[in-house]
Amino acid sequence: MVPSTHGGESLWCARPWPEHEAGLMSRKSWDGVELMAALRSGAERLESRVAEVNALNVFPVPDGDTGTNMLATLKAAIAEGEATLAAGVTAIDQVSEAVARGALLGARGNSGVLLSQILRGLPQAVRGRKRARASEIANALSIGVLHAYSAVATPTEGTILTVAREVAASALADIESATELRPFLLKIAESARVSVDKTPTLLAVLREAGVVDSGGAGLQLILEGIADVPFVVPSANGDDGDAGIKTATPVTMPPVASAQGTSASEPSEYGYETVYILRASGAPLDLVKIRAELEGLGESVLVAGDAKTCKVHVHNLQPDLILAYGIAHGEVRGVTIENLDQQSAERATGHGAFTDLSTKVGASSAAAPTPLQQGTAVVAVAAGRGLATIMQSAGAAQIVHGGQTENPSAAEIAAAISATGKRDVIVLPNNSNVVLAARQAADLVAANVTVVPTRNAAEGIAALLTWDPSLPADEAAKRFESARTTARTFRIVEAVRDAVVKGVSVRSGEVMALDPVDGIIATGGDDLAALTKALSGERAELLTLYLGADVDQAAGERMADAARSAISGVEVELARGEQPIERVLVSLE
């Protein structure tokens, strides 16, 4: 066990939240009213300790915002759910659909996007139901885990993904014995605590920093709050009032876990329909081989596309096998998993079709959307006014405000994409914690979107300097990617606590030079000292210093002089970036 270094109560101690035994909800099932009470309780629990979650940051910089992003995402989900309740709808299928839609649109930061994907499993597990029991909740977690894993090109164990997967596996294991929700939810919260506690044993950077995974800790707090939900008066459906409740076939976990779950339901007649986009991440896709191997896993197999990208469609009883196959062969995007048995029952009873969660942003329900124009546009995320101005002058059609500590939501990025009016759009997130939200935004719009995963504004500007609007989108994106990967950048930031990162020690108040790949490459007593050490041994023809909001021009001139002394013959440019957090952003060419 690695204890948190951020004083006070441990995030993963046994029974870490207050209990109010007389008033806690003890029911066999939930409707939409009770679901929303549980989510509100989860949000309150997270909000009460959001600063602690934010502080669980591997790098000792003042930009930890995991808890803030997860809370904003959950609140967006709750707002959509509350609006549905206000319209008089209490069935859990429709309320949970609104919750998932709100989370997808409101997702901020990587942790918020993964939380939104976890919540995305809820409407798929309760489709056609007015109420949901433990089995549906377990299946919702399981399906959500599949979505969350598919949202990340290279899933990392020891993160929120691990915690969610192990929580879902625990929930599946308990559904046969679960009659009351209260003890079932307590076990889920306890399994989250145990999983968070061991994240440092799975991820070396957490162990070295002396912290647990912040996203996992945030999920733990949400689940604790859900388990602590107070009693609410059920709707007119009454407890267990839905005659249509049945136990769904459990969805098993990806092969990284050995989740064991059983169900008392009858065998599925149709099973699940799994659809996703598979993109080659290395070797070209062999469509003939993929089709043949998938036919061994299911029926109604369709594989269409080319050696770079194809669409996969399969019917079977275990969608996790189909998704795991895709993850093993490339990058999986746009996953949908539908319960064909429920679809069949709904067609027979006249139940309305499930509303697509990725409703296109910017489309009017009253009129047909404006046709997209031919051509390519660029959307860039910028944290400071100066950086925004530079990017616009370099060709960005739309700027989304955000960056460190202010990650934009998927809906904000999607709105900017739609505002270009172009058929093809390239997005430059310019921050590692905005990449997943940008990719989620791509699924919410009608345009063809390519996300070039720029890690900071200097990489984004380097990409924009290659911009040629006459080029096809794929060629422009290739240029951007090449410029991004060849750019040499680092940022000057003040440490907010003592830490050791990749063997390099830094004390609170010192200034660090942080490389996107290598971490701390130099430390010093001030900006000038850290910059000088970081440039030692470097070679470059041009060096650009993007000055942050707290760095005046005179200090910038002194750093420019130091850079000229450190690198013989280098040309130095000063630019006002006005970005927060990063005192100076450095680019070498």
Number of helices: 22
Low-confidence stretches: 1-12, 19-24, 241-269, 343-368
Instruction: Give the class from helix and strand content and strand pairing.
Output: alpha/beta
Strands, count: 16
Cα(first) to Cα(last) distance is 44 Å
Question: What is the helix fraction of residues, given as a range?
Answer: 40-55%
Mean pLDDT rating: 83
What integer value in Å does the Rg equal? 25 Å
Largest sheet: 6 strands, mixed
* Strand line-up in the sheet with most strands: 13-12-9-16-14-15
How much of the sequence is in beta strands? 15-25%
Gross morphology is globular
Key attributes of the depicted protein:
four-stranded antiparallel sheet, alpha/beta, disordered N terminus, 43% helix, 589 residues, globular, six-stranded mixed sheet, 22 helices
